[in-house]
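About this split. The held-out portion is used to measure sequence recovery: a designer receives only the structure tokens and must propose an amino acid at every position. Recovery is the fraction of positions where the proposal matches the reference. Here is one held-out target exactly as it appears in the evaluation file.
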């Protein structure tokens, strides 16, 4: 070819190349002009909320619940260990810090695969492209989606640093088993923070993005190991780890297993209350926006409440006998049970019955009068006679091989037990502000989430009497006032069968009684007469001061015996008035809420009981000889910053301090010499309360308090029926309350409300309740309102000889 011809061909080739280049550039610009308006703003990356679940904690930082479809634990780039970052670079994009969002060589390889196989496979995606796809785009495999992914990746790279991109990617990537991001994956698979993982564990996590379901170590440990080893080999080839680290990491066994969110304190009823309240305000965002709720619960007291309620219900079950085996093994397994007691088939049967509040399933192997042998998921165990004697086994009442039963660890020993049919509730409040300290709504939340503390309205029985007696005190009666404990009949003018004959629990009568004694011994007939004297309407109106809904209080004399139905929470709120000096507080359980950014969006400001805020100065004590004031020791008072409480933060006073002091002293007698006298064994002198038992022993209660803690225990069946003869509040509920208080008040100083002015110490004739001179033989000391002193004693009982007391008929 001549030189001129060669020059011509060269010019044509150059022009053609220029034309093609211009066409390609024009096509690129046109493509860019078409795609870019469809892409989202990179700034919105920072606005996208990670699906962080709602987490609920006690006031001392113990997790009690987590709600959300995704597990996330966002980390900053500074918190990401270098080997973890290197593992992801080795697995996904080793040129990440060199390219500008698109790896041309990787895309070329993907194009070659397409050209040679005719298949469109996902390939050549950089970490930035994966982030673009995960945040904004679908996983649809199409050229359009790939083009958008490329342009969006370039846009991200132009506006964010490499470190910012990695932080976003490693917090958003799905890594299987509900884990989004490396922080959550470390917790889910290994139960540790990322900083505490080995190189092998980091490589395992880094191997998951390609196929988080297929390569998940919980689903396929072999595939997870193969993928991990590939990542480790890549890390070694890239110089991230040396020979020794590579060999060590490759030799590590796969130890991953599912680590659910570690609930540190069991308080599922409260966690559910929090979830429901936030969902009512925030909807589905409750589960994704990273809310952190701190409750008012005290972890030590909550654990004590759990143990007290469960122990009390199991004790009830043992008092009333064994119900028999829960189920039986299928016949096909019985033949091989003795030779293969821990066979996989038997263990499958046990696994089908999850533990219930610590009660583990077990299969009976044999039972003799001295030994019970059972199979558990930990093998064969033997229980001595002391562990099952309560069940009263005999020839007709026994267990057979293959029976499925429940056992529990009580202290350091195993014991035969059963899932209780009876139920209970326990609530403890701080009476000074209403903060819930402990709440247990039933034996086990997962047997049914019905919350008996807040949802179960049950007859309060004698638990209403303190409110009736306080109404009487407000009418001018005193603890020394005499009322008759004798039969009474209320006749019906329509049908004699409708006559009402209230009675005392044991069917006996004590004649004339002082109010103090009548309350301590819970005398029903005295209460009926007190209600008559005070008036039904006045009683209902007065009781509403304690937070009760007047419309739910019966408008007849049955109100005196507690025929009204209230929840344990309502009872705890009402008794808080006695405990705090006369103020009505509002129970609350959420102390604070922060959102996903860590910003506090709610902080509780409860109304505070403040006895000192409106208390008059104490009356001076005068020397009887000189008439001059004398110094007296200051009374021990409740430790609280009352003087600092501004008016707008004070709870309303609903009961005069004099009346509060009197009724509290009467309720103190209940626990020292009355129906709850076993409380004395706690060794404290600052406790008070009231037992309660509803009709036919259907509900058993104890409502008790100190100046710093109110606790209410209830026992009964969800479908009301008698608990059994003798299952009164003092037997079924008081022990539960005491078990709780042993822990809850440990280290808490004994305190009492200071005695207010307006009260006078007097000596009375215990038979008449009338005033006698101090030192009179047989007299008793009593405290009464200074403006309601009893008349001088004339030796005449208001009701004459109690032995001659006849039944009143109305």
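Reference sequence for scoring:
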């Amino acid at each position: 070819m001549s030189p001129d011809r060669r020059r011509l061909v060269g010019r044509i080739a150059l022009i053609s190349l220029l034309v093609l280049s211009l066409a390609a550039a024009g096509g690129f610009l046109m493509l860019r002009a078409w795609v870019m308006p469809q892409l989202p703003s990179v700034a919105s990356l920072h606005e996208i909320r990670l699906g962080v679940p709602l987490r609920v904690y006690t006031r001392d930082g113990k997790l009690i619940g987590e709600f959300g479809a995704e597990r996330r634990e966002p980390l900053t780039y500074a918190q990401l260990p270098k080997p973890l970052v290197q593992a992801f670079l080795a697995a996904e994009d080793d040129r990440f810090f060199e390219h500008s969002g698109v790896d041309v060589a990787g895309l070329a390889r993907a194009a070659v695969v397409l050209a040679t196989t005719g298949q469109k496979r996902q390939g050549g995606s950089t970490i930035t492209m994966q982030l673009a796809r995960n945040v904004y785009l679908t996983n649809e495999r199409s050229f359009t989606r790939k083009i958008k992914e490329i342009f969006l990746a370039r846009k991200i790279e132009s506006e964010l640093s490499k470190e910012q991109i990695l932080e976003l990617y490693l917090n958003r990537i799905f890594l299987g088993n509900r884990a989004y991001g490396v922080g959550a994956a470390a917790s889910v698979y290994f139960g540790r923070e990322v900083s505490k993982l080995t190189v092998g564990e980091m490589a395992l996590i880094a191997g998951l993005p390609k196929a988080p379901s297929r390569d998940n170590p919980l689903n396929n440990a072999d595939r997870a190991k193969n993928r991990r080893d590939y990542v480790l080999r890549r890390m070694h080839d890239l110089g991230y780890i040396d020979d020794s680290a590579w060999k060590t990491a490759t030799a590590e066994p796969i130890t991953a297993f599912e680590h659910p969110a570690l609930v540190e304190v069991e308080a599922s009823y409260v966690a559910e209350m929090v979830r429901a309240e936030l969902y009512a305000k925030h909807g589905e965002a409750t589960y994704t926006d990273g809310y952190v709720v701190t409750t008012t619960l005290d972890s030590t007291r909550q654990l004590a409440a759990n143990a007290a309620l469960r122990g009390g219900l199991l004790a009830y079950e043992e008092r009333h006998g064994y119900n028999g085996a829960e189920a039986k093994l299928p016949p096909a397994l019985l033949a091989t049970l003795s030779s293969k007691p821990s066979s996989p088939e038997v263990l499958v049967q046990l696994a089908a019955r999850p533990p219930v509040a610590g009660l583990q399933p077990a299969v009976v192997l044999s039972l003799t009068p001295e030994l019970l042998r059972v199979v558990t998921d930990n093998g064969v165990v033997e229980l001595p006679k002391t562990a099952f004697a309560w069940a009263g086994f005999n020839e007709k009442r026994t267990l057979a091989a293959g029976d499925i039963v429940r056992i529990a660890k009580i202290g350091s020993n195993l014991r035969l037990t059963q899932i209780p049919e009876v139920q209970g509730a326990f609530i403890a409040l701080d009476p000074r502000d209403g903060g819930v300290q402990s709440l247990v709504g039933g034996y086990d939340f997962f047997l049914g989430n019905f919350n008996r503390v807040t949802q179960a309205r049950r007859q309060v029985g004698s638990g209403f009497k303190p409110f009736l007696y306080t109404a009487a005190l407000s009418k001018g009666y005193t603890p020394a006032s005499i009322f008759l404990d004798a039969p009474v009949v209320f006749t019906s003018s329509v049908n004699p069968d409708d006559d009402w004959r209230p009675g005392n629990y044991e069917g006996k009568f004590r004649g004339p009684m002082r109010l103090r004694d009548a309350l301590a011994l819970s005398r029903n007939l005295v209460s009926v007469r007190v209600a008559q004297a005070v008036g039904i309407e006045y009683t209902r109106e007065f009781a509403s001061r304690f937070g009760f809904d007047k419309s739910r209080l019966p408008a007849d004399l049955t109100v005196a015996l507690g025929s009204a139905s209230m929840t344990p929470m309502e009872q705890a709120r009402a008794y808080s008035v006695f405990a705090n000096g006369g103020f009505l507080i509002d129970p609350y359980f959420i102390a604070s809420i922060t959102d996903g950014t860590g910003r506090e969006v709610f902080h509780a400001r409860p109304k505070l009981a403040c006895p000192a805020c409106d208390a008059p100065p104490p009356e001076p004590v005068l020397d009887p000889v000189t008439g001059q004031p004398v110094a007296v020791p200051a009374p021990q008072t409740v430790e609280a910053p009352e003087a600092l409480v501004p008016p707008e933060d004070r709870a309303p006073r609903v009961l005069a301090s004099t009346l509060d002091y009197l009724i509290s002293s009467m309720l103190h007698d209940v626990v020292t010499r009355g129906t709850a006298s076993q409380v004395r064994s706690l060794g404290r002198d600052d406790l008070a309360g009231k037992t309660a038992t509803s009709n036919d022993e259907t509900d058993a209660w104890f409502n008790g308090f100190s100046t710093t803690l109110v606790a209410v225990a209830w026992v009964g069946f969800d479908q009301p029926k008698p608990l059994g003869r003798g299952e009164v509040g003092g037997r079924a509920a008081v022990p539960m309350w005491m078990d709780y208080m042993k822990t809850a008040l440990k280290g808490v100083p004994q305190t009492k409300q200071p005695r207010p002015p307006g009260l006078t110490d007097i000596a009375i004739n215990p038979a008449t309740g009338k005033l006698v001179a101090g030192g009179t033989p047989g007299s008793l000391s009593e405290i009464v309102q200074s403006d309601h002193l009893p008349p001088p004693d004339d030796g005449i009982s208001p009701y004459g000889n109690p032995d001659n007391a006849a039944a009143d008929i109305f």
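Annotator remark: The chain has a mean pLDDT of 87.
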